[in-house]
Amino acid sequence: SGASTSARTTLQAMNRRQAIYKPSTSSTGGHVLLFSAKTNIALVGLVIDGADLTFDTIKLQSSSTGMLFDDLELRNSKSQGLLCQSSANGILRNSYVHHSGDSVNGLEHGIYLNTGCDNWVIEHNELAYNSGISAQLYAQPKNTLFQYNYIHDNCDLSTGGLQELQISHESHLVLRNVVVSTKCRVGIQISLQGPLNNKVRQNSVYCLSGTCAVHAGGIGIANYGTSTEIADNIVLGYTNQLGGTGTGSLIDNLVTGT
Fold first, then answer.
1. What is the mean pLDDT of residues 158-185?
2. What is the pTM of this model?
3. Are residues 97 and 126 in contact, defined by beta-carbon separation less than 8 angstroms?
4. Residue 17 in this model has a pLDDT that exceeds 80
5. Strand ranges of the sheet holding 255-257, from the earlier edge strand across to the other edge
6. Contact 93, 127 (CB under 8 A)
7. Between β-strands 41-44 and 82-84, what pairing exists: parallel, antiparallel or unpaired?
8. Would you place residue 78 in the very low, low, confident or very high pLDDT band (cuts 50, 70, 90)?
9. Which of 229, 230, 228, 225 is nearest to 194 (CA)?
10. Is 141 exposed, middle or buried (CB count within 10 Å of its CB: 0-12, 13-18, 19+)?
11. What is the maximum alpha-carbon separation in the chain?
């Protein structure tokens, strides 16, 4: 562990994304990297490959707080690319998370924030070709800043039952992302775990062809979604540009088209 977020213990590649960590055996229960009750650690410029193991490329648990993951490539996980459980105040930025999940483990996700993973910043990443959702904010994480990400070609093993990005619970800000879909039925979905006070602003959501053209909507709000703000977004190519409006939603300046 490091002393603080300004004095993290850092493991950094000398050359950006040329140092590859791809273990063939694991002492961490099938995860490539497992952080349990560790704090203030930074990984920078590494490639972390889960092709030969059975679960996540990175898993955080037991209050592993203050973690920084910068300029990583997380690939070929059999489960999640990054799985967070009960570990707040993390940062994932400038990274490429792709090809998470397989036909054995099913529809797994690039990023999965679970209960207790509050106050994360996820920004300037590319999230693509994951078997399920690019990022699943599920089971009551709060206050995520999710911005400037390029999300495309997820739901890779789906038959049309998922979304590119899933937002649940409360007080997330989804800002200035580009979402491009072909296989997912929805671009950005706000549902599950009582979604409350979430803001979706200045995103560009495109359906190019395929499954997304005939399903729920570019941005979807479940009926039990409360006080959602949808403002200044562009949604193009979906049969329904907005799938549901929830309760007490503010929907302003939604640019739509085919």
1. 87
2. 0.96
3. yes
4. yes
5. 19-21, 46-49, 73-75, 96-98, 126-128, 150-152, 178-181, 204-207, 234-236, 255-257
6. no
7. unpaired
8. very high
9. 225
10. buried
11. 52
Tracing tokens 């979906």 back to the chain, one arrives at 238
As a residue count, the chain comes to 258
Helix (H, G, I), strand (E, B) or coil at 212: helix
Mean pLDDT of all residues belonging to the chain: 92
d(CA 168, CA 165): 10
Q: Lowest mean pLDDT: which of 70-74, 127-131, 237-241? A: 237-241
CA dihedral 41, 198, 246, 156 (to 10 degrees): -40
**Residue 160 scores a pLDDT above 60:** no
Compute the distance between CA of residue 191 and CA of residue 243 in angstroms, rounded to an integer.
11
Q: How far apart are CA 206 and CA 239, in angstroms?
A: 11
Query: What is the identity of the amino acid at 157?
Result: L
Q: Using CB atoms within 10 A of its CB, is residue 14 exposed (0-12), middle (13-18) or buried (19+)?
A: exposed
| Residues 119, 172: Cα–Cα separation, whole Å | 9
Question: How do residues 90-107 score in pLDDT, each as one tens digit?
Answer: 999 999 999 999 877 667
Contact 150, 122 (CB under 8 A): no
Structure-token pair, residue 145:
């800043």
Residue with tokens 């997330």: 172
d(CA 29, CA 108): 17
Residue written as tokens 């950006």? 16
